[in-house]
Amino acid sequence: MTTSASGGAPPVRAGIGLRAPHHREVLEQPPDVGWLEAHSENYFADGGGALATLQRVRERWPVALHGVGLALGSADALDREHLRRLARLVARIDPWAVSEHVCWGHAGGRHTNDLLPMPRTQESLRLLAARVGEMQDALGRQVLLENVSSYLEFENAGFTEAGYLAALVAESGCALLLDVNNVYVNACNHGFDAEGYFAELPVAAVREIHLAGHEVTRIGAQDIRIDTHDRTICDEVWALYASARRRFGRVPTLIEWDAALPPLGTLVAEARRADAVE
Amino acid sequence: MRLSELQRRFVAGLYGEPTDLAGTIRIDGGIGADERLAIYRGNLQAGFEKALRLEFPVVATLCGAEFFMVLSREFQRAHPSGSGDLHHIGGPFPGYLRDRFGGGEHAYFADVAALEWAREESARAADSGTLDVGVLRDVAPDDLPALRFALHPAVRLVASRWPVFTAWEAHQGPGEVRHVDLGAGPEYVLVRRAGSGPALERLTAGEFGFLAALADGGTLGAAFDAAIAAEPGFAVTPSLQRCVVRGILCRVLR
Protein backbone atom coordinates (compact mmCIF):
# COMPACT_ATOMS: atom_id res chain seq x y z
CA MET A 1 0.00 0.00 0.00
CA THR A 2 1.36 3.38 -0.96
CA THR A 3 0.38 6.68 0.57
CA SER A 4 0.09 9.24 -2.17
CA ALA A 5 0.54 12.91 -1.40
CA SER A 6 -2.89 14.40 -2.00
CA GLY A 7 -5.36 17.04 -1.06
CA GLY A 8 -2.80 19.37 0.49
CA ALA A 9 -1.77 19.59 4.14
CA PRO A 10 -4.29 18.68 6.83
CA PRO A 11 -6.27 21.81 7.77
CA VAL A 12 -5.42 23.52 11.05
CA ARG A 13 -8.73 25.20 11.91
CA ALA A 14 -11.92 23.25 12.53
CA GLY A 15 -14.27 22.39 9.67
CA ILE A 16 -17.95 21.67 9.20
CA GLY A 17 -19.96 19.04 7.36
CA LEU A 18 -21.25 20.10 3.93
CA ARG A 19 -24.98 19.39 3.74
CA ALA A 20 -27.31 19.91 0.75
CA PRO A 21 -29.57 22.58 2.36
CA HIS A 22 -26.44 24.73 2.82
CA HIS A 23 -24.99 24.25 -0.66
CA ARG A 24 -26.08 27.59 -2.10
CA GLU A 25 -25.16 29.62 0.98
CA VAL A 26 -21.72 28.02 1.28
CA LEU A 27 -20.92 29.15 -2.27
CA GLU A 28 -22.52 32.58 -2.08
CA GLN A 29 -21.45 33.58 1.44
CA PRO A 30 -18.42 31.40 2.19
CA PRO A 31 -18.27 30.63 5.91
CA ASP A 32 -15.04 31.32 7.79
CA VAL A 33 -14.06 27.70 8.50
CA GLY A 34 -10.90 25.71 7.91
CA TRP A 35 -12.35 22.94 5.75
CA LEU A 36 -15.44 20.98 4.79
CA GLU A 37 -16.31 17.31 4.92
CA ALA A 38 -18.73 15.67 2.49
CA HIS A 39 -20.51 12.33 2.76
CA SER A 40 -19.00 10.48 -0.21
CA GLU A 41 -22.20 8.72 -1.30
CA ASN A 42 -24.03 12.04 -1.73
CA TYR A 43 -21.65 12.86 -4.58
CA PHE A 44 -21.52 9.50 -6.39
CA ALA A 45 -23.67 10.88 -9.22
CA ASP A 46 -22.28 10.92 -12.75
CA GLY A 47 -22.81 14.69 -12.91
CA GLY A 48 -25.29 17.39 -11.93
CA GLY A 49 -25.62 20.11 -9.32
CA ALA A 50 -24.48 18.46 -6.09
CA LEU A 51 -21.21 17.28 -7.60
CA ALA A 52 -20.65 20.67 -9.25
CA THR A 53 -21.12 22.32 -5.84
CA LEU A 54 -18.59 20.04 -4.18
CA GLN A 55 -16.09 20.76 -6.96
CA ARG A 56 -16.52 24.51 -6.41
CA VAL A 57 -16.21 24.07 -2.66
CA ARG A 58 -12.95 22.20 -3.25
CA GLU A 59 -11.56 25.18 -5.17
CA ARG A 60 -11.77 27.20 -1.96
CA TRP A 61 -11.26 24.79 0.96
CA PRO A 62 -9.56 21.51 1.81
CA VAL A 63 -12.19 18.76 1.63
CA ALA A 64 -12.40 15.32 3.27
CA LEU A 65 -14.57 12.52 1.87
CA HIS A 66 -16.40 10.62 4.60
CA GLY A 67 -18.02 7.36 3.48
CA VAL A 68 -21.07 5.94 5.20
CA GLY A 69 -21.93 3.04 2.89
CA LEU A 70 -19.07 0.59 2.30
CA ALA A 71 -19.91 -1.36 5.48
CA LEU A 72 -16.39 -2.82 5.45
CA GLY A 73 -17.02 -5.30 8.27
CA SER A 74 -19.84 -7.15 6.48
CA ALA A 75 -18.98 -10.82 5.87
CA ASP A 76 -20.67 -10.68 2.44
CA ALA A 77 -18.52 -9.49 -0.46
CA LEU A 78 -17.37 -5.90 -0.69
CA ASP A 79 -19.37 -3.90 -3.24
CA ARG A 80 -16.85 -3.27 -6.04
CA GLU A 81 -19.12 -0.82 -7.82
CA HIS A 82 -19.38 1.26 -4.66
CA LEU A 83 -15.61 1.25 -4.34
CA ARG A 84 -15.24 2.19 -8.02
CA ARG A 85 -17.55 5.19 -7.57
CA LEU A 86 -15.61 6.24 -4.48
CA ALA A 87 -12.32 6.03 -6.40
CA ARG A 88 -13.82 8.18 -9.17
CA LEU A 89 -14.94 10.78 -6.62
CA VAL A 90 -11.54 10.79 -4.91
CA ALA A 91 -9.92 11.45 -8.30
CA ARG A 92 -12.39 14.29 -8.97
CA ILE A 93 -12.08 16.01 -5.58
CA ASP A 94 -8.51 15.34 -4.40
CA PRO A 95 -9.49 15.24 -0.70
CA TRP A 96 -6.99 15.69 2.13
CA ALA A 97 -8.54 12.62 3.82
CA VAL A 98 -10.79 9.69 2.94
CA SER A 99 -12.58 7.98 5.80
CA GLU A 100 -15.01 5.15 6.57
CA HIS A 101 -16.38 3.47 9.68
CA VAL A 102 -15.48 0.50 11.85
CA CYS A 103 -18.80 -1.18 11.22
CA TRP A 104 -20.79 -3.61 9.14
CA GLY A 105 -24.13 -3.01 7.43
CA HIS A 106 -25.55 -5.77 5.24
CA ALA A 107 -26.12 -9.51 4.95
CA GLY A 108 -27.77 -11.71 2.35
CA GLY A 109 -28.11 -8.78 -0.07
CA ARG A 110 -30.14 -6.69 2.37
CA HIS A 111 -28.55 -3.41 3.43
CA THR A 112 -29.43 -1.59 6.63
CA ASN A 113 -27.68 1.66 5.61
CA ASP A 114 -26.66 1.92 9.24
CA LEU A 115 -23.32 1.76 11.05
CA LEU A 116 -23.72 -1.52 12.94
CA PRO A 117 -21.23 -2.39 15.70
CA MET A 118 -18.60 -5.07 15.05
CA PRO A 119 -18.51 -8.24 17.11
CA ARG A 120 -14.94 -7.77 18.42
CA THR A 121 -13.45 -11.15 17.56
CA GLN A 122 -10.26 -12.31 15.81
CA GLU A 123 -12.41 -13.46 12.88
CA SER A 124 -14.02 -10.06 12.38
CA LEU A 125 -10.71 -8.24 12.85
CA ARG A 126 -9.08 -10.32 10.08
CA LEU A 127 -12.01 -9.65 7.75
CA LEU A 128 -12.15 -5.93 8.51
CA ALA A 129 -8.39 -5.49 8.13
CA ALA A 130 -8.48 -7.28 4.76
CA ARG A 131 -11.34 -5.06 3.58
CA VAL A 132 -9.53 -1.92 4.73
CA GLY A 133 -6.56 -3.20 2.76
CA GLU A 134 -8.75 -3.62 -0.35
CA MET A 135 -10.05 -0.09 0.06
CA GLN A 136 -6.56 1.36 0.49
CA ASP A 137 -5.31 -0.56 -2.54
CA ALA A 138 -8.24 0.58 -4.69
CA LEU A 139 -7.70 4.21 -3.73
CA GLY A 140 -3.90 4.09 -3.62
CA ARG A 141 -3.81 5.86 -0.26
CA GLN A 142 -4.17 5.37 3.45
CA VAL A 143 -7.72 5.73 4.77
CA LEU A 144 -9.04 6.77 8.18
CA LEU A 145 -11.42 4.46 10.08
CA GLU A 146 -13.90 5.94 12.56
CA ASN A 147 -15.26 4.48 15.79
CA VAL A 148 -19.08 4.36 15.83
CA SER A 149 -21.72 4.85 18.51
CA SER A 150 -23.45 1.65 19.57
CA TYR A 151 -26.51 0.63 21.52
CA LEU A 152 -25.53 -2.98 22.01
CA GLU A 153 -22.38 -5.08 22.25
CA PHE A 154 -21.91 -8.68 21.15
CA GLU A 155 -20.91 -11.43 23.54
CA ASN A 156 -17.51 -13.10 23.46
CA ALA A 157 -15.59 -9.91 22.71
CA GLY A 158 -11.88 -10.61 22.57
CA PHE A 159 -10.93 -6.93 22.61
CA THR A 160 -11.95 -3.71 24.25
CA GLU A 161 -13.33 -1.28 21.70
CA ALA A 162 -10.15 0.83 21.71
CA GLY A 163 -8.01 -2.30 21.66
CA TYR A 164 -9.87 -3.45 18.55
CA LEU A 165 -9.10 -0.12 16.83
CA ALA A 166 -5.43 -0.38 17.80
CA ALA A 167 -5.28 -3.92 16.42
CA LEU A 168 -6.96 -2.77 13.20
CA VAL A 169 -4.34 -0.06 12.76
CA ALA A 170 -1.54 -2.56 13.35
CA GLU A 171 -3.00 -5.13 10.97
CA SER A 172 -4.20 -2.92 8.09
CA GLY A 173 -1.96 0.15 8.22
CA CYS A 174 -4.98 2.46 8.33
CA ALA A 175 -5.21 5.67 10.36
CA LEU A 176 -8.03 6.65 12.74
CA LEU A 177 -10.80 9.20 12.77
CA LEU A 178 -11.61 9.58 16.45
CA ASP A 179 -15.22 10.56 17.07
CA VAL A 180 -15.08 11.96 20.59
CA ASN A 181 -18.87 12.06 20.85
CA ASN A 182 -19.08 8.38 19.94
CA VAL A 183 -16.49 7.53 22.60
CA TYR A 184 -18.54 9.42 25.17
CA VAL A 185 -21.83 7.84 24.03
CA ASN A 186 -20.36 4.33 24.22
CA ALA A 187 -18.58 5.00 27.50
CA CYS A 188 -21.97 5.88 28.99
CA ASN A 189 -23.93 3.13 27.21
CA HIS A 190 -21.48 0.32 27.91
CA GLY A 191 -19.77 1.52 31.06
CA PHE A 192 -16.12 2.16 30.30
CA ASP A 193 -13.73 4.99 31.00
CA ALA A 194 -13.26 7.39 28.05
CA GLU A 195 -9.79 8.50 29.17
CA GLY A 196 -8.72 4.87 29.37
CA TYR A 197 -10.04 4.41 25.82
CA PHE A 198 -7.82 7.26 24.59
CA ALA A 199 -4.84 5.73 26.38
CA GLU A 200 -5.23 2.49 24.41
CA LEU A 201 -5.12 4.20 21.01
CA PRO A 202 -1.84 4.62 19.09
CA VAL A 203 -1.32 8.40 19.26
CA ALA A 204 0.25 8.82 15.82
CA ALA A 205 -2.63 7.01 14.09
CA VAL A 206 -5.28 9.57 15.09
CA ARG A 207 -5.49 12.02 12.18
CA GLU A 208 -8.95 13.55 12.51
CA ILE A 209 -11.52 14.21 15.23
CA HIS A 210 -15.31 14.40 14.93
CA LEU A 211 -17.59 16.26 17.32
CA ALA A 212 -21.38 16.06 17.33
CA GLY A 213 -24.48 16.26 19.50
CA HIS A 214 -26.44 13.28 20.81
CA GLU A 215 -29.68 12.68 22.68
CA VAL A 216 -30.39 10.88 25.92
CA THR A 217 -33.42 8.64 25.90
CA ARG A 218 -34.81 6.42 28.62
CA ILE A 219 -35.61 2.73 28.33
CA GLY A 220 -37.22 1.41 31.49
CA ALA A 221 -35.13 2.74 34.36
CA GLN A 222 -31.96 3.25 32.32
CA ASP A 223 -30.68 6.08 30.15
CA ILE A 224 -29.23 5.30 26.76
CA ARG A 225 -27.44 7.81 24.57
CA ILE A 226 -28.31 7.90 20.88
CA ASP A 227 -25.94 9.47 18.33
CA THR A 228 -28.35 11.83 16.57
CA HIS A 229 -26.15 14.65 15.16
CA ASP A 230 -29.11 16.98 15.64
CA ARG A 231 -27.99 19.44 18.32
CA THR A 232 -25.04 21.27 19.87
CA ILE A 233 -22.18 19.35 21.44
CA CYS A 234 -22.68 18.71 25.16
CA ASP A 235 -20.31 20.00 27.85
CA GLU A 236 -19.02 16.53 28.73
CA VAL A 237 -17.94 15.96 25.11
CA TRP A 238 -16.24 19.37 24.99
CA ALA A 239 -14.30 18.41 28.12
CA LEU A 240 -13.36 15.09 26.55
CA TYR A 241 -12.29 16.92 23.38
CA ALA A 242 -9.89 19.05 25.43
CA SER A 243 -8.43 15.85 26.82
CA ALA A 244 -8.17 14.34 23.32
CA ARG A 245 -6.32 17.43 22.12
CA ARG A 246 -3.79 17.07 24.90
CA ARG A 247 -3.17 13.44 23.94
CA PHE A 248 -3.45 13.50 20.14
CA GLY A 249 -2.41 17.08 19.34
CA ARG A 250 -4.16 19.60 17.10
CA VAL A 251 -5.47 17.15 14.52
CA PRO A 252 -8.13 18.46 12.10
CA THR A 253 -11.51 18.66 13.84
CA LEU A 254 -14.97 18.53 12.30
CA ILE A 255 -18.41 19.61 13.54
CA GLU A 256 -20.96 17.01 12.36
CA TRP A 257 -24.61 17.93 12.17
CA ASP A 258 -27.06 15.91 10.04
CA ALA A 259 -30.63 16.08 11.34
CA ALA A 260 -32.59 19.21 12.33
CA LEU A 261 -29.94 21.18 10.47
CA PRO A 262 -29.50 24.69 11.95
CA PRO A 263 -28.42 27.85 10.10
CA LEU A 264 -24.85 27.72 8.83
CA GLY A 265 -23.85 30.29 11.47
CA THR A 266 -24.57 27.79 14.27
CA LEU A 267 -22.13 25.30 12.73
CA VAL A 268 -19.51 28.02 12.30
CA ALA A 269 -19.92 29.02 15.96
CA GLU A 270 -19.33 25.39 17.04
CA ALA A 271 -16.22 25.26 14.83
CA ARG A 272 -14.93 28.48 16.47
CA ARG A 273 -15.50 26.95 19.88
CA ALA A 274 -13.44 23.92 18.84
CA ASP A 275 -10.65 26.20 17.60
CA ALA A 276 -10.55 27.89 21.02
CA VAL A 277 -9.96 24.61 22.90
CA GLU A 278 -6.32 24.40 23.95
CA MET B 1 -21.18 -18.57 15.64
CA ARG B 2 -19.47 -17.49 12.46
CA LEU B 3 -19.58 -13.78 11.61
CA SER B 4 -21.59 -14.36 8.43
CA GLU B 5 -24.26 -16.33 10.31
CA LEU B 6 -24.47 -13.77 13.13
CA GLN B 7 -24.88 -10.94 10.62
CA ARG B 8 -27.52 -12.85 8.64
CA ARG B 9 -29.55 -13.48 11.81
CA PHE B 10 -29.11 -9.89 12.99
CA VAL B 11 -30.34 -8.41 9.69
CA ALA B 12 -33.33 -10.78 9.72
CA GLY B 13 -34.11 -9.48 13.22
CA LEU B 14 -33.90 -5.88 12.03
CA TYR B 15 -36.28 -6.68 9.19
CA GLY B 16 -38.73 -8.03 11.76
CA GLU B 17 -38.41 -11.71 10.90
CA PRO B 18 -38.21 -14.56 13.43
CA THR B 19 -34.54 -15.13 14.21
CA ASP B 20 -32.41 -16.71 16.92
CA LEU B 21 -29.97 -14.27 18.48
CA ALA B 22 -29.97 -15.93 21.91
CA GLY B 23 -26.66 -15.52 23.67
CA THR B 24 -25.15 -13.23 21.04
CA ILE B 25 -26.05 -9.83 22.49
CA ARG B 26 -24.52 -8.79 25.82
CA ILE B 27 -27.10 -7.88 28.39
CA ASP B 28 -26.08 -5.40 31.05
CA GLY B 29 -27.95 -2.83 33.04
CA GLY B 30 -31.69 -2.72 32.64
CA ILE B 31 -31.95 -2.86 28.86
CA GLY B 32 -32.66 -6.22 27.25
CA ALA B 33 -31.41 -7.55 23.90
CA ASP B 34 -34.81 -7.04 22.25
CA GLU B 35 -34.95 -3.42 23.35
CA ARG B 36 -31.44 -2.82 22.05
CA LEU B 37 -32.28 -4.47 18.73
CA ALA B 38 -35.43 -2.33 18.56
CA ILE B 39 -33.30 0.83 18.53
CA TYR B 40 -31.59 -0.39 15.36
CA ARG B 41 -34.89 -1.56 13.87
CA GLY B 42 -36.31 1.92 14.44
CA ASN B 43 -33.26 3.48 12.77
CA LEU B 44 -33.64 1.13 9.80
CA GLN B 45 -37.28 2.10 9.26
CA ALA B 46 -36.81 5.81 9.92
CA GLY B 47 -33.71 6.12 7.75
CA PHE B 48 -35.39 4.37 4.83
CA GLU B 49 -38.55 6.44 5.16
CA LYS B 50 -36.61 9.70 5.35
CA ALA B 51 -34.64 8.84 2.20
CA LEU B 52 -37.81 7.77 0.38
CA ARG B 53 -39.55 11.02 1.37
CA LEU B 54 -36.62 13.07 0.06
CA GLU B 55 -36.88 11.30 -3.30
CA PHE B 56 -40.69 11.40 -3.50
CA PRO B 57 -41.81 14.55 -1.67
CA VAL B 58 -45.00 14.99 -3.72
CA VAL B 59 -46.10 11.37 -3.23
CA ALA B 60 -45.40 11.86 0.48
CA THR B 61 -47.61 14.96 0.56
CA LEU B 62 -50.40 13.23 -1.38
CA CYS B 63 -50.29 10.26 1.02
CA GLY B 64 -50.10 12.26 4.23
CA ALA B 65 -47.51 11.50 6.93
CA GLU B 66 -49.19 8.49 8.49
CA PHE B 67 -50.06 6.65 5.28
CA PHE B 68 -46.65 7.38 3.76
CA MET B 69 -45.01 5.77 6.80
CA VAL B 70 -47.14 2.64 6.33
CA LEU B 71 -46.33 2.57 2.60
CA SER B 72 -42.63 3.05 3.28
CA ARG B 73 -42.54 0.06 5.62
CA GLU B 74 -44.46 -2.15 3.21
CA PHE B 75 -42.20 -1.11 0.36
CA GLN B 76 -39.07 -1.65 2.46
CA ARG B 77 -40.12 -5.22 3.25
CA ALA B 78 -40.82 -5.92 -0.44
CA HIS B 79 -37.77 -4.05 -1.75
CA PRO B 80 -35.10 -3.82 0.96
CA SER B 81 -32.16 -1.53 0.21
CA GLY B 82 -29.70 -3.40 -2.01
CA SER B 83 -26.88 -0.91 -1.81
CA GLY B 84 -24.77 1.02 0.68
CA ASP B 85 -25.89 4.10 -1.24
CA LEU B 86 -29.44 4.95 -0.16
CA HIS B 87 -30.01 6.95 -3.35
CA HIS B 88 -30.87 3.68 -5.10
CA ILE B 89 -33.89 2.69 -3.02
CA GLY B 90 -36.47 4.64 -5.05
CA GLY B 91 -36.04 2.82 -8.38
CA PRO B 92 -38.73 0.16 -7.78
CA PHE B 93 -41.12 2.56 -5.97
CA PRO B 94 -43.26 3.68 -8.97
CA GLY B 95 -43.78 0.04 -10.03
CA TYR B 96 -44.58 -0.92 -6.45
CA LEU B 97 -47.24 1.78 -6.24
CA ARG B 98 -48.66 0.68 -9.61
CA ASP B 99 -49.15 -2.86 -8.29
CA ARG B 100 -50.29 -1.66 -4.85
CA PHE B 101 -53.04 0.68 -6.06
CA GLY B 102 -54.11 -1.00 -9.31
CA GLY B 103 -56.82 1.03 -10.99
CA GLY B 104 -58.25 2.60 -7.84
CA GLU B 105 -58.49 6.25 -6.85
CA HIS B 106 -54.77 6.36 -5.92
CA ALA B 107 -53.65 4.84 -9.22
CA TYR B 108 -52.12 8.16 -10.34
CA PHE B 109 -49.68 8.09 -7.38
CA ALA B 110 -47.54 5.66 -9.42
CA ASP B 111 -47.19 8.16 -12.27
CA VAL B 112 -46.38 11.02 -9.88
CA ALA B 113 -43.70 8.74 -8.41
CA ALA B 114 -42.40 7.96 -11.91
CA LEU B 115 -42.10 11.70 -12.55
CA GLU B 116 -40.28 12.28 -9.26
CA TRP B 117 -37.90 9.39 -9.94
CA ALA B 118 -37.25 10.74 -13.45
CA ARG B 119 -36.33 14.04 -11.80
CA GLU B 120 -33.96 12.22 -9.38
CA GLU B 121 -32.28 10.38 -12.24
CA SER B 122 -31.97 13.56 -14.25
CA ALA B 123 -30.39 15.40 -11.32
CA ARG B 124 -27.70 12.72 -11.01
CA ALA B 125 -27.07 12.09 -14.73
CA ALA B 126 -23.78 12.90 -16.42
CA ASP B 127 -22.95 16.39 -17.62
CA SER B 128 -22.66 16.85 -21.36
CA GLY B 129 -22.07 19.42 -24.06
CA THR B 130 -24.99 20.21 -26.36
CA LEU B 131 -25.48 20.27 -30.11
CA ASP B 132 -24.12 23.24 -32.04
CA VAL B 133 -26.95 24.46 -34.23
CA GLY B 134 -24.44 25.07 -37.03
CA VAL B 135 -24.16 21.30 -37.43
CA LEU B 136 -27.76 21.17 -38.62
CA ARG B 137 -27.31 24.08 -41.04
CA ASP B 138 -24.54 22.17 -42.76
CA VAL B 139 -26.75 19.16 -43.48
CA ALA B 140 -28.34 19.01 -46.97
CA PRO B 141 -32.17 19.18 -46.63
CA ASP B 142 -32.57 15.76 -48.27
CA ASP B 143 -30.31 14.20 -45.66
CA LEU B 144 -32.13 15.63 -42.62
CA PRO B 145 -34.80 12.89 -42.23
CA ALA B 146 -32.10 10.21 -41.86
CA LEU B 147 -30.33 11.95 -38.94
CA ARG B 148 -30.26 10.35 -35.51
CA PHE B 149 -29.31 12.20 -32.32
CA ALA B 150 -27.80 11.44 -28.95
CA LEU B 151 -29.99 13.08 -26.32
CA HIS B 152 -28.53 14.74 -23.22
CA PRO B 153 -28.00 12.10 -20.48
CA ALA B 154 -30.24 14.13 -18.13
CA VAL B 155 -33.27 13.98 -20.44
CA ARG B 156 -36.22 11.92 -19.18
CA LEU B 157 -39.69 11.67 -20.71
CA VAL B 158 -42.81 10.81 -18.71
CA ALA B 159 -46.30 10.23 -20.13
CA SER B 160 -49.38 9.70 -18.00
CA ARG B 161 -53.09 9.35 -18.62
CA TRP B 162 -53.54 11.69 -15.65
CA PRO B 163 -52.53 15.37 -15.34
CA VAL B 164 -49.33 14.33 -13.60
CA PHE B 165 -47.42 17.57 -14.21
CA THR B 166 -50.29 19.63 -12.82
CA ALA B 167 -50.35 17.42 -9.72
CA TRP B 168 -46.59 17.72 -9.30
CA GLU B 169 -46.59 21.49 -9.80
CA ALA B 170 -49.47 21.98 -7.34
CA HIS B 171 -47.49 20.31 -4.55
CA GLN B 172 -44.17 22.11 -4.64
CA GLY B 173 -43.20 23.20 -1.18
CA PRO B 174 -44.69 21.81 2.01
CA GLY B 175 -48.40 22.06 2.54
CA GLU B 176 -51.70 20.31 2.37
CA VAL B 177 -53.08 18.31 -0.54
CA ARG B 178 -54.49 20.59 -3.22
CA HIS B 179 -57.32 19.74 -5.53
CA VAL B 180 -56.29 18.48 -8.94
CA ASP B 181 -58.88 17.56 -11.56
CA LEU B 182 -57.82 14.01 -12.35
CA GLY B 183 -60.30 13.91 -15.21
CA ALA B 184 -58.41 16.63 -17.08
CA GLY B 185 -56.79 14.06 -19.36
CA PRO B 186 -53.25 12.94 -20.15
CA GLU B 187 -50.10 14.97 -19.67
CA TYR B 188 -46.61 14.62 -21.10
CA VAL B 189 -43.52 15.86 -19.29
CA LEU B 190 -39.94 16.59 -20.26
CA VAL B 191 -37.31 16.48 -17.53
CA ARG B 192 -34.04 18.07 -18.59
CA ARG B 193 -31.01 19.80 -17.14
CA ALA B 194 -31.26 23.56 -16.79
CA GLY B 195 -28.17 25.16 -15.30
CA SER B 196 -26.87 22.45 -12.98
CA GLY B 197 -30.24 21.08 -11.84
CA PRO B 198 -33.35 19.40 -13.25
CA ALA B 199 -36.19 21.36 -14.85
CA LEU B 200 -39.65 20.02 -15.72
CA GLU B 201 -41.95 21.24 -18.47
CA ARG B 202 -45.19 20.13 -20.06
CA LEU B 203 -45.07 18.83 -23.64
CA THR B 204 -47.80 18.43 -26.23
CA ALA B 205 -48.60 14.89 -27.38
CA GLY B 206 -46.76 15.62 -30.62
CA GLU B 207 -43.64 16.94 -28.91
CA PHE B 208 -43.64 13.92 -26.62
CA GLY B 209 -43.96 11.50 -29.56
CA PHE B 210 -41.20 13.35 -31.39
CA LEU B 211 -38.74 13.25 -28.46
CA ALA B 212 -39.64 9.70 -27.43
CA ALA B 213 -38.88 8.49 -30.96
CA LEU B 214 -35.53 10.32 -30.97
CA ALA B 215 -34.72 8.97 -27.49
CA ASP B 216 -35.36 5.45 -28.80
CA GLY B 217 -32.72 6.04 -31.48
CA GLY B 218 -35.20 6.74 -34.27
CA THR B 219 -34.39 9.02 -37.19
CA LEU B 220 -35.66 12.57 -37.47
CA GLY B 221 -38.04 11.31 -40.17
CA ALA B 222 -39.44 8.59 -37.95
CA ALA B 223 -39.75 11.07 -35.07
CA PHE B 224 -41.72 13.41 -37.31
CA ASP B 225 -44.03 10.55 -38.30
CA ALA B 226 -44.59 9.66 -34.64
CA ALA B 227 -45.33 13.28 -33.79
CA ILE B 228 -47.83 13.70 -36.63
CA ALA B 229 -49.58 10.48 -35.61
CA ALA B 230 -50.04 11.88 -32.09
CA GLU B 231 -50.77 15.47 -33.09
CA PRO B 232 -51.86 16.11 -36.71
CA GLY B 233 -50.82 19.79 -36.73
CA PHE B 234 -47.30 19.14 -35.40
CA ALA B 235 -44.65 21.47 -36.86
CA VAL B 236 -41.19 19.93 -36.90
CA THR B 237 -38.97 22.99 -37.44
CA PRO B 238 -39.91 24.95 -34.29
CA SER B 239 -39.83 21.74 -32.24
CA LEU B 240 -36.34 20.93 -33.43
CA GLN B 241 -35.26 24.49 -32.69
CA ARG B 242 -36.68 24.25 -29.16
CA CYS B 243 -34.76 20.99 -28.66
CA VAL B 244 -31.51 22.67 -29.64
CA VAL B 245 -32.12 25.79 -27.54
CA ARG B 246 -32.99 23.67 -24.48
CA GLY B 247 -29.87 21.55 -24.79
CA ILE B 248 -31.85 18.34 -25.31
CA LEU B 249 -29.72 17.16 -28.23
CA CYS B 250 -26.03 16.51 -27.65
CA ARG B 251 -24.74 15.42 -31.02
CA VAL B 252 -25.62 13.82 -34.34
CA LEU B 253 -25.08 10.07 -34.35
CA ARG B 254 -23.17 9.00 -37.45
Compact description:
The complex is a heterodimer of chains A (278) and B (254). Chain A is of the alpha/beta class.
How would you describe this structure to a colleague?
The complex is a heterodimer of chains A (278) and B (254). In chain A, helix 4 packs across helix 5 (161-172) and helix 7 packs parallel to helix 8 (235-248). In chain A, strands 1-2-3-4-7-8-9-12 form an eight-stranded parallel barrel, surrounded by four helices. The two termini of chain A are 35 Å apart. Chain A has nine helices and twelve strands. Chain A has one domain: Alpha-Beta Barrel (TIM Barrel), CATH 3.20.20.150. Chain A has helices spanning 23-28, 49-60, 80-93, 122-139, 161-172, 180-190, 194-200, 235-248, 264-276, and strands spanning 15-17, 36-39, 63-66, 97-101, 104-107, 110-116, 144-146, 175-179, 206-212, 215-219, 222-226, 253-256. Chain A is globular, with a radius of gyration of 18 Å. The longest helix of chain A is centred in the middle third of the chain and has 18 residues, at 122-139. Residues 1-5 of chain A have low confidence and may be disordered. Chain A has 278 residues and is an alpha/beta fold. The N and C termini of chain B lie far apart (60 Å). Chain B has 254 residues and is mainly alpha-helical. The relative contact order of chain B is 0.10. In chain B, a hairpin with a 2-residue loop joins strand 3 and strand 4. Chain B contains eleven helices and five strands, in the order H-H-H-H-H-H-H-E-E-H-E-E-H-H-H-E. Chains A and B meet through helix 2, strand 5, strand 6, helix 4 and strand 11 of A and helix 1, helix 2 and helix 6 of B.
Features:
heterodimer, A: 278 residues, alpha/beta, 8-stranded parallel β-barrel, two-stranded antiparallel sheet, 9 helices, B: 254 residues, mainly alpha, 2 domains, 3-stranded antiparallel beta sheet, two-stranded antiparallel ribbon, 5 strands, 11% strand, elongated
